[in-house]
Specification:
Structural class of chain B: alpha+beta
Radius of gyration of chain B: 16 Å
Largest sheet of chain B: 6 strands, mixed
Number of helices of chain A: 10
Strand content of chain B: 35-45%
Strand order of the largest sheet of chain A: 12-18-17-16-15-14-13
Largest sheet of chain A: 7 strands, antiparallel
Shape of chain A: globular
Distance between the termini of chain B: 29 Å
Number of helices of chain B: 3
Order of helices and strands of chain B: HEHEHEEEEE
Number of strands of chain A: 19
Radius of gyration of chain A: 23 Å
Order of helices and strands of chain A: HEHEEEEEEEEEEHHEHHHEEEEEEHHEH
Helix content of chain B: 25-40%
Helix content of chain A: 10-25%
Oligomer: heterodimer
Chain lengths: 415, 165
């Protein structure tokens, strides 16, 4: 696909720019196909996993970059590698398991064998049988490696890209976003487990939701009622210069209610008689010197670093066609957590995930949009909270980082 | 296979466990969720975990409730705070098996389950399949759970999980 594809699209972004989003971007299969080329295989870095998930040479795991299945593996030299999970012979899936250990990758179909750096090392019946059959004498093994991706590791996070041109990872993320990743991954972590959440909406509706700091205290009543996240808390919204990455943060203990709509009890989310029978669920301890208690970082296109009190998680949004997607959650703590801290992280994990007291609505709200927009692709969503442009915001009553997502999207998609 | 010293005693435990299981799934399927915490000891453990995490010895769970208070809070949140489309469960359980006696007392029981979710639209789907890894104890003549680990064969939840399994 190329520029011709854009021309074939009956699509034009509204003149008002990123404060309007045409519903067509959530429903058009042609745009979805173009995203695979220009975003998932284009000028972007994609998170695959954590180094600690593959500690020894030969340890591998499988992941997806958009619709493309990928293997992440630690090679014989201890370096992280990534390949399309596809045999270079006839295209069969190489690794079916989600994770495992291999000395080499052998395709089950015809036993073509690749080393951990993706080089073709063996072909069954290469010389045929009794001089009959087999590969031509001039068959070039070096020309039939696995499709290898560019890989970079940042504070234990493994990213890959199909692009030979995209800037190095730290430049792609920028100083501020890199610093926040360093803040979370400041010492060895311990993985607590993972799970997945299937959603019946376009993947970008979830990314809009993640970047939308405006909705959290309105849709998620649990959070607001217990003072976990009110937009009146000290906090802010940082947006990368490219618009694509964001960081929203708040400090739970610094809060001024007077004079807000919260103080007047106007919000549906405020229910005074709603108290926890067992407040141990919300007990937390300050573990970062900057006293930030909640921080959500969205990395373009589809990766999220989450700190909700002491609940730490990574999220990867994987598209499944134009109207479905799957959110992969990886929960973690630190290797030096005391048993009490480890237990408290588990208790707080009740707030997140598909059964999260706070987050469960996010699994549903995108489908409420998806089902209403299909018949009116030319109509648009309105994004004017906090202005019409993409700037850092002192307030989180803003849709600036959602506009930022679309700014970056339009550049990569050439729309 | 003997677990308790005699076949008759095993049969009695299994009989009581089957009755508890029927009452438990009836409570959820009848939407009598306010009674759900009463199926546990006061400090009972209730969690829902994927088979993958369970097998790998990783603790991350969908639900993780320590004690009746947290279970009560789950139901309060479901009734008053959380937003979701109306739906009901129908539990089917089978293959109840006495695994053995626990060192701290009580009986470990494994039971297969299936949950079919019916949405308000009429759409029906298998929502979860797996097994209960339970520890049952007797309190004042009533059998209840000291531990209930709901192990789901799939790591994937469709849309959201709000009603306990």
């Amino acid at each position: 696909m190329s520029q011709a594809t854009t021309a074939e699209l009956s699509f034009q972004w509204p003149a008002l720019g990123v404060c309007r989003v045409p519903y067509q971007v959530f429903t058009d299969p042609a745009l979805y196909a173009l995203e695979q080329e220009r975003i998932f295989r284009g000028e972007a870095w994609h998170w695959l996993g954590l180094e600690v998930e593959t500690p020894s040479p030969g340890d591998y795991m499988t992941q997806r970059i958009g619709d493309t299945p990928v293997i992440m593996v630690r090679d014989a030299q201890g370096q992280m590698q990534a390949f399309i999970n596809r045999c270079a012979h006839r295209g069969a899936t190489l690794c079916v398991e989600q994770r495992g250990h291999a000395q080499q990758f052998t395709c089950v179909y015809h036993n073509w064998t690749f080393d951990l750096a993706g080089r073709l090392r063996g072909v069954a019946f290469r010389h045929g049988i009794r001089g009959q059959g087999g590969l031509p004498a001039d068959f070039d093994f070096a020309a039939h490696s696995l499709h290898r991706l560019r890989v970079e590791v940042l504070h234990g996070l493994v990213f890959a890209t199909f692009s030979p041109h995209v800037a190095p990872l730290s430049e792609y993320l920028g100083e501020q976003m890199t610093a926040h990743i360093a803040r979370i991954f400041n010492r060895p972590i311990r993985i607590l487990g993972s799970y997945r959440q299937f959603m019946h909406n376009n993947w970008k509706l979830y990314m809009e939701n993640v970047k939308d700091t405006y909705h959290a205290s309105l849709l998620h009543l649990f959070l607001t009622t217990f003072g976990l996240n009110r937009l009146s808390m000290e906090g802010g919204l940082e947006i990368s210069p490219c618009g694509g990455h964001h960081l929203s943060w708040s400090k739970r203990h610094v809060e001024e209610l007077a004079g807000t709509e919260y103080a007047q009890g106007k919000m549906r989310a405020m229910q005074k008689d709603f108290q926890l029978a067992d407040p141990r669920l919300l007990q937390s301890w300050g573990e970062f010197p900057d006293r930030i208690t909640n921080a959500i970082q969205g990395i373009f296109p589809n990766f999220v670093v989450q700190q909700i009190q002491n609940s730490l998680a990574l999220r990867l949004m994987v598209p499944h066609g134009v109207d479905a997607c799957e959110l992969y959650w990886l929960l973690f703590g630190y290797a030096d957590d005391t048993p009490e801290q480890a237990e408290q992280r588990l208790l707080q994990s009740n707030l997140i995930g598909p059964a999260g007291l706070v987050s469960m609505e996010d699994g549903m709200i995108g489908s409420w949009v998806q089902r209403t927009i299909a018949q009116d692709p030319e109509e648009t969503a309105v994004l004017e909270m906090g202005g019409r442009d993409v700037t850092h915001q002192g307030s989180r009553v803003s849709e600036a980082s959602v506009r930022g997502f679309w700014q970056r999207y339009r550049v990569l998609m050439d729309l | 296979m003997r677990r308790s010293g005699s076949v008759a005693a095993d049969d009695h435990i299994i009989y009581r466990a089957e009755r508890l299981m029927a009452d438990y799934i009836g409570c959820i399927d009848d939407d009598a969720l306010e009674r759900w915490p009463l199926f546990f000891t006061e400090d009972g453990l209730y969690r829902i975990i994927s088979r993958e995490n369970y097998r790998r010895g990783l603790p991350a769970s969908f639900f993780y409730c320590r004690g009746q208070g947290m279970m009560h809070d789950r139901i309060m949140s479901l009734r008053r705070a959380n937003i979701y489309e109306p739906h009901v469960y129908r539990h089917l359980v089978s293959g109840l098996r006495l695994v053995g006696e626990e060192p701290m007392g009580g009986w470990r029981i494994h039971t297969n389950f299936q949950v079919i979710r019916t949405m308000h639209t009429g759409e029906m789907a298998v929502f979860a399949v797996g097994f209960f890894d339970d520890v049952l104890v007797e309190r004042d003549g009533v059998w209840i759970f000291r531990e209930k680990t709901v192990v789901c064969d799939s790591s994937r939840i469709d849309t959201l999980l709000v009603i306990p399994i």
